[in-house]
Amino acid sequence: MDASLEKKIADPTLAEMGKNLKEAMKMLEDSQRRTEEENGKKLLSGDIPGPLQGRIQNIGEQGHISLLGHSLGAYISTLDKEKLRKLTTRILSDTTLWLCRIFRYENGCAYFHEEEREGLAKICRLAIHSRYEDFVVDGFNVLYNRKPVLYLSAAARPGLGQYLCNQLGLPFPCLCRVPCNTVFGSQHQMDVAFLEKLIKDDIERGKLPLLLVANAGTAAVGHTDKIGRLKEVCEQYGIWLHVEGVNLATLALGYVSSSVLAATKCDSMTLTPGPWLGLPAVPAVTLYKHDDPALTLVSGLTSNKPADKLRALPLWLSLQYLGLDGIVERIKHACQLSQRLQESLKKVNHIKILVEDELSSPVVVFRFFQELPGSDPGLNAIPAPSAAASAVGRERHSCDALNRWLGEQLKQLVPMSGLTVMDLEVEGTCVRFSPLMTAAVLGTRGEDVDQLVACVQSKLPVLTCTLQLREEFKQEVEATAGLLYVDDPNWPGIGVVRYEHANDDKSSLKLDPEGEKIHAGLLKKLNELESDLTFKMGPEYKSMKSCIYIGMASDDIDISELVETIAVTAREIEEDSRLLENMTEVVRKGIQEAQVQLQKANEERLLEEGVLRQIPVVGSVLNWFSPVQASQKGRTFNLTAGSLESTEHTYVYKVQGSGVTPPQTPTGTRTKQRLPGQKPFKRSLRGSDAISETSSVGHIEDLEKMEQSSGGQEASEANSHERHPEAPAPPEAEPPGALQDGAQGLQDDRPQVEEPESLR
């Protein structure tokens, strides 16, 4: 607290409170100084112990001041009634006067509330009491005879109309949504001409137009309605005009746009200084103009309870601490951040800014886009023909998924920016930057905005390449047998594919255990390849069947190799799983067949040896005089062929039978050879600028060696036949000289291959 404030305080209680606040500020400054000296290694002595220790964000001195106001309010409430009444009245009047002067709202009153929409509900009660004189006596009967109408913009915050009806006890037909401009003007501004038409229709039906809620910065994109024109319409029909929005903060600046400045002439407005100034636990404020204190008391806008007046104490302390210069500086800094981002994004290709026409808006909304071939960006609002509607719809869904991925990536890379991802009805998925609501709390600086722009530029190549590779991936999957392309509009990657196994029921949408097992093995195999792509498994967009989701990609991805690898690997997994499943049945049948054959062999042996040899004593004597030369016969089971084989070959020749040669593992028809260190699914590096000068020679030599090793011998034989088509057959013996001459001639006729200069 400074000395100028102490001079203005005449009451002894206020002077004592100012002295206590000065001591509290000194304690806070000493605590902060000790923390800086310890470099954050030790906790503050006043930190909250237990599970909350170390989890509370750094709120700064102004945050401590606002939090101190709640404790001070509890302390003040213990004073005697007379002193408490004077003190609370002084705090309330000073805070109201300061807010009205800062935000250019002359001769206004203030209502402080915790819930942002609570102030508007109280204003609606005031409007009802003002327009219905007998409402206090007759109540609902007055409203039934002439129903009130509340007009809200279609771009208003979601759930506002339902909240008002629940608080006021009005039916939902009392709400009237005014559409926004569709042809002329902004897509998020209220259509004034259509509003007048709605008002005239309601008057003809015997209804009473009661209140209109305008936006000075819509909740979505920060657009401002034509408040000046709306004020004229409201004065003409006797309608209460209430304004809310983030752009009302710019009223504290030296330069204010005319559309926002017109809000100072409205009947009421709602301000949220807590997020604007980075003040925690600070109430919202509704400024209004009304001359009848009895109606404001009945409506709940004023109260005689000291506890209600003490709601303004945290804001009163914060305004004292910041001062006018501090308040203006924070709002100005937030507006400068938005302008800095807007100017930087204008220079980035494939980024569209949705608030480009409003230079004073502190909200920046942007999205990634890529125009269709031959399309005109100026005709986006015109409905496309039915033939191209499906293509435009697919492009819209693809861009929405990519913008959702872009927003999440930017939020992780630049957490200080306070970005939010939202879905708009016309534009689709967008990213919003609203520094007035986040910069003061997060401490956003200009360097964070520059980092945000750099991150956007670094993600653009991945976005554009992924969008371009999607169609190629779809064509390759549709041309590959056994693969099914799944059109998932919510997936931001290259695409989604499902392998159709032999027992796959295409008409069923239920869970497929066999397919899930195959896709789980396929996912494991793909992740083991250590490529730059990310693979995930999940249910299909419209069914419970498992699919493989392929993530974002760069421009050097070979789609044909990727699709072929997926098809071949899935086929191998299916064959392996089928072999394991059939193994039990094959082994069981083989054992049964072996038992039958062994029993048959025993019967043949009995017939061959005779009955006498089976008698114990006679058989031994007979075998001693005439031994039986019987060969040992057994059976072996070949798992590869799935058949029984005799063991006679093993006992006679003392070697193991070779059996049937197992089938070769299926491989892709377009499998290419990769260079050492080259990751899977990468395109060939031949002729690429990515090859360095030190490694280009070795890579080219490896490529040429691999190409020449496969067909070198065939090329040499074809070359010799072409050069000597009529050469006679060589004789059986020739003199050594002739051989040497012939060899010398071959060496002379051999073509000389000149070495390229790049390989020398």
TrEMBL record:
Name of the gene: PDXDC1
Domain PDXDC1-like third, residue spans: 473-578
Gene3D superfamilies on file: 3.90.1150.170, Type I PLP-dependent aspartate aminotransferase-like (Major domain)
Region (Disordered): 29-49, 656-760
GO molecular function: carboxy-lyase activity; pyridoxal phosphate binding
Transmembrane segments: none
Keyword entries, A-Z: Decarboxylase, Lyase, Pyridoxal phosphate
Lineage, opening ranks: Eukaryota, Metazoa, Chordata, Craniata, Vertebrata
One GO BP annotation of this record: carboxylic acid metabolic process
Protein name, as recorded: Pyridoxal-dependent decarboxylase domain-containing protein 1
Listed Polar residues bias regions: 658-670, 708-718
The family this protein is said to belong to: Belongs to the group II decarboxylase family.
Basic and acidic residues biased stretches: 29-41, 747-760
Residue intervals of the PDXDC1/PDXD2 second domain: 361-467
Record-linked Pfam families: PDXDC1-like_cen (PF22930), PDXDC1-like_cen2 (PF22937), Pyridoxal_deC (PF00282)
Cofactor: pyridoxal 5'-phosphate
